Hints:
The protein folds into 3 domains: 6-134 and 274-408 and 553-604, 3-Layer(aba) Sandwich (Alkaline Phosphatase, subunit A); 141-269; 411-543, Gyrase A, domain 2 (2-Layer Sandwich). It is built from 13 helices and 35 strands. Strands 1, 2, 5, 6, 20, 21, 22, 33, 34 and 35 form a 10-stranded mixed β-sheet that branches. The protein has a 5-stranded antiparallel β-sheet with strand order 10-11-12-13-14, with no helix packed on it. Strand 11 (176-186) and strand 12 (193-202) form a beta hairpin. The longest helix is centred in the middle third of the chain and has 29 residues, at 365-393. The two termini are 24 Å apart. The relative contact order is 0.19.
Amino acid sequence: xxxxxxxxxxxxxxxxxxxxxYLSQDALPNIGAVVRSGVYVPLxxxxxxxxxxxxxxxxTGAFPSVTGIEGFLLHRQGCQFDERISGCYAHRCQAxxxxxxxxxxxxxxxxxxxxxxxxSNEGTFRLDGAAGWGGIKCLHESASSSVGANQYAxxxxxxxxxxxxxxxxxxxxxxxxxxxxxxxxxxxxxxxxVDVHIxxxxxxxxxxxxxxxxxxxxxxxxxxxxxxxxxxLVISAPSRRGTVPCAFRVKVLECSTGPPVLRxxxxxxxxxxxxxxxxxxxxxxxxxxxxxxxxxxxxLVFHAGLDLETQLEIFRLNVDWLTRVSVGLLSRExxxxxxxxxxxxxxxxxxxxxxxxxxxxxxEEKMAEYYTGVMLQCYRMVDELVGAVAETIGSEANLIVMxxxxxxxxxxxxxxxxxxATHDLLAWKDDGQEVDWDHTRAYAAGNYIYLNLxxxxxxxxxxxxxxxxxxxxxxxxxxxxxxxxxGQPVILIADPKEAFAELGGDGAGVGDIVFxxxxxxxxxxGRGNVLSGTRVFHEFTSGHDHYWPLDEKIQxxxxxxxxxxxxxxxxxxxxxxxxxxxxxxxxxxxxxxxxCQGNSMNMLFADQNIPVLL
Length: 614
């Protein structure tokens, strides 16, 4: 008998309510098959319940106070509170993840786009896991996705400038050129840019958009009609490592004449190589999977008027690419542990939740069925990915499908620092954009409020003798905060951080006060009205990281099937996300990660005598 294998598919940010409903309707046949033939486990997420914090705890079996991953952005001792660093990289995590544990114990681990796995050379194989979620820009990204338009199109897009020089070899193009221009894509590195040459051509039968790396028509990549996508296009582009080959796609969003109107979308320019360990293995699988189709966040819907259909197509590109990578590796490599994460469900909720939740002002009953159907399309994309992986690994391997946190409606934004300023606890400089630390007693970041303590902070003004009264004052005021429009409290829980030790919410980087919002209210650090409503397709209308992780809407699920798990078992009690890593290790027959604080969920095993190695 072969030793047990475990494949893990992490689905970021699915709503437990939505997932349970779809499963009850048999709308997700592949995830449903895992549930019917295996185990169903409700899970408590982390505090805060957000992507880097939750996946770090899932992968290590340790609370945030041990991993040190206590938010998207981390406070460093000795720095001002607004000078935080990203908490989304492997070297920030202070606990051992299971792919390292597996490799250390002689197991072959493969990790694809999993949060907190990059940069690292641990494990048998690791493919770039530092972007595609949380708005993070990948270190291997040359230029971001954008919407470009010429001067005749509606405003709100990157301008495609009219070309000053003629398109060379125009005779090689069959048709009349209506417009030509240069699409200048700003790079993320060294203030460089990439020029893409565009021509709008009337062939007599239809309009075509010529996309080219130069002004030489004979070098053109592709000719596209409205609504068409290009295949992956390769161009040399500046990156953090110099000029390297990068791949991207183009879609024609709009083209017409009289006057000539042109709107285009480009996906991220992503390096073809250098984003995996070992590099030679990925070079083989790139031929199977194609260049990375990574960034699926919906900010261009909010800021550039990108249509919903195109956003769904971006989701599809990402899921199809993940499917090709996963199936390729699982069918061709000797593996023991495989881990991959997909993020489109989280984005779909942030984008659409206000249209499917009656608690949001933009909810329209007559349109709810349509948008619920759009949401279902997104869940079904991921369900197809689960099906492809399940078919590839077969019945002799174990499959775990799980989330990191749930979703709740965000109908209102609570600007915590603005609120602190109204109580003379925070002061702004004259320009109104920077904090005046010499007159600031408290500062908010995420779920946390930090006191500006003498001796601890660079410009501290709060004395140690003032700490108890100041904490009591802030906590009391938070608990009493009312939304004057809705006549309801904004804050559900607020206490000194020590009160959250059982959830690992008392770590060194956590604020002196931790708070969670009532349903509907999401906190932010920026300026503006203390409370303001959100608008669908203009900003996020769902949230998770400022809500109480024990709330059933913020909980998540784990589904697992295979020879190591019981059949048709539904766990009646809540497990913790930190219990997943030791459970996987028990199946693999290896010790739990070194800093693990969770417990193996032995009640899930088909063989109740599986040993737990500590």
